[in-house]
Design brief:
By secondary structure, the chain is mainly alpha-helical. The protein is built from 7 helices and 2 strands; from the N terminus they run H-E-E-H-H-H-H-H-H.
């Protein structure tokens, strides 16, 4: 259940000392708590290894996987208005889609798939008949 590191943030085990809640020291952690603490480190490593250099520098100063994820989400998905604008632009590309001069069948298929996949990612739904007739 390491996904919690992305959704909630790092697990910080706490204890009460003299009526004050403080973070537990490493020596006080139970095996279960120690495993939960590691989730954030593992998630940060997974994110880091998957990034290109620009994105890595964008999140390199983050303190948690959740913080990294939030920055990447805003960077790549944008705001609601940005998503709407991107969706409309892609729908226009889809409507006007046609094979270009000198383009191979493979190139056409890649370009079409790219547009359709982005639209699906933005919430547009297609049925197979529509896609087949469009590509033909």
């Amino acid at each position: 259940m390491g996904f919690e590191a992305f959704v909630i943030g790092p697990f910080l085990p706490m204890t009460v000392v003299n009526d004050v809640t403080v973070e537990k020291s490493f020596d006080e952690l139970t095996d279960v708590e120690n495993k939960k603490v590691q989730y954030d480190y593992i998630a940060k490593n997974i994110i880091t290894y998957a990034l290109n250099l620009d994105d890595f520098f964008r999140v390199s100063q983050c303190n948690s996987a959740k913080e990294m994820w939030d920055i990447l989400e805003v960077t790549h998905e944008g705001t609601i208005d940005g998503k709407r604008a991107r969706k409309h632009a892609l729908i226009q590309k889809y409507k006007l889609f046609q094979m270009q001069q000198g383009e191979t069948i493979d190139d056409v298929q890649k370009r079409f798939t790219h547009i359709v996949n982005y639209l699906i990612g933005l919430g547009k739904q297609f049925d197979k008949e529509e896609l087949n007739s469009k590509i033909l």
